[in-house]
Design a protein that fits this description.
This protein is α+β, with helices and mostly antiparallel strands and 413 residues long. It contains ten helices and 14 strands. A seven-stranded antiparallel beta sheet has the order 2-6-7-1-5-4-3. A five-stranded mixed beta sheet has the order 10-9-8-11-12. A two-stranded antiparallel ribbon has the order 13-14.
Length: 413
């Protein structure tokens, strides 16, 4: 399985300037390659091969007056930026043909220098880890890294990122084997299992009646964010004061995201530590994010939390399962199995018409999730070994225009 390790980086003012130059050159190469392929497509010419495109926008461009400054940065940065373009095109074509699972992928777009997040990727011949704890980056120098934990394996690539709050991060993706990872101190019975019902009133409800309160970090910071965003809107566009106000807003959003992520890590680690099997409902978060509850849904961060449960369970030898999103967990009595029909969200308790049991809506749903997860696991045991790969933690390299919130993630034991 793949795990991502993010570390805070503290470049000097001179190194910040060199990194900004590398960010800009990587962006220009990406945009030049995208423009060349779009123009070839508009002219009815065949698709430009990867090697030909590299010769055009990197090798030949360095010899021109307009792009001669591309030679001031490491060639590894430029090549990797062009590979990101190749990957974006392949994902787009695979999505069109239907061979790529998930939602439809849009074609690649031009990158903007005004994006809050900028990044470069380097392979092993573009960086190295020093014995004194620094990280050498070609044509940038030795960067100071805050090593919160050692890397479990040798890193073959690194992504250096600057987020909207002007923080720098080094991101490593390493391949590890779950069986060699030291397990957590298991604190429950050997057959402990749980179903997790995610919600907004309570972040999570467990079958034993335990309810995890929703911290609502964004709601708590709304008053300060409103004041900072109002000050930002009053600044003249293009001015220095507007740039300062934008950074203040970005830092506040980063603080909210960091608090939410830290809380997710602690709660997911506790659930994985206390249970041998975990079952959750496959929620349609993207659909719920377009309703009137969008702000509360995004503040809860269900997708990030479920992803943490999935990779931590795989890493520490636990079983993780998802049940279908159309399973009527809130309509079926967990005691007798009678389906009582849909109920408005305002109904938090109901009495079963079959056995007369009085149910808490969320606790009953958690018990049904547990029962459905057990049934799916029993059926899946007949086809063992088809579990698939576990994805790396979120935030891969590349500049994403639609992402305004800085995202960082440090793996948690």
């Amino acid at each position: 399985m793949q795990l991502r390790y993010n570390y805070r980086v503290y470049p000097t003012p001179g190194q910040r300037h060199l990194l900004a130059r590398a960010f800009g050159c990587a962006r220009v190469v990406f945009n030049d390659g995208l423009r060349a392929r779009r123009e070839a497509h508009a002219a009815g010419q065949p698709y430009i091969r990867d090697t030909d495109l590299q010769k055009l926008v990197i090798t030949a461009a360095k010899r021109t007056t307009e792009r001669g400054w591309l030679g001031e940065v490491s060639s590894v940065v430029l090549v990797q930026s062009l590979r990101d373009l190749h990957t974006a095109y392949r994902n787009f074509f695979a999505s069109l043909s239907g061979s790529r699972k998930g939602p439809r992928v849009a074609p690649p777009r031009f990158k903007s220098k005004r994006d809050g997040e900028q990044s470069i990727r380097l392979t092993a011949n573009g960086f190295s880890l020093r014995d004194n704890g620094t990280m050498y980056v070609a044509k940038v120098g030795d960067l100071e890294v805050r090593w919160s934990r050692p890397l479990p394996a040798t890193a073959t690539s690194v992504t250096v990122t600057k987020d909207a709050a002007d923080r720098y991060w080094a991101s490593f993706v390493v391949d590890t084997q779950p069986q060699v990872v030291e397990d957590l101190d298991f604190g429950g019975p050997l057959d402990a299992e749980t179903g997790i019902d995610l919600g907004l009133t309570h972040f999570a409800v467990l079958p034993d009646g335990r309810k995890i309160e929703a911290p609502k970090f964004l709601r708590q910071a709304e008053r300060k964010l409103k004041r900072l965003q109002k000050a930002l809107s009053r600044c003249v566009k293009g001015g220095n004061n507007r740039a300062k106000a934008r950074k203040k807003v970005a830092r506040q959003h980063a603080r909210v995201a960091d608090r939410r992520r830290d809380w997710h890590h602690k709660e997911s680690t506790r659930l994985v530590r206390d249970n041998q099997a975990l079952y959750v409902e496959d929620l349609a978060v993207s659909g719920l994010g377009r309703t009137r509850l969008a702000r509360s849904v995004h503040d809860a961060g269900w997708s990030a939390f479920v992803t943490m449960l999935e990779y931590k369970a795989a890493r520490h030898g636990r079983y993780f399962g998802r049940i279908g999103r159309f399973e009527p967990t809130s309509q079926v009595c967990s005691a007798c199995g009678v389906k009582d029909g849909p109920k408005p969200l305002g109904v938090r308790e109901w009495t079963c018409g079959g056995c007369g049991s009085v149910h808490d809506r969320d606790v009953n749903a958690a018990r049904n999730i547990l029962a459905a997860g057990r049934a799916d696991r029993l059926n899946a045991s007949q086809s063992a070994g088809k579990t698939g790969s576990v994805p790396a933690q979120r935030v891969e390299a590349g500049t994403h225009r639609d992402r305004h919130l800085p995202v960082v993630g440090i793996p948690v034991l």
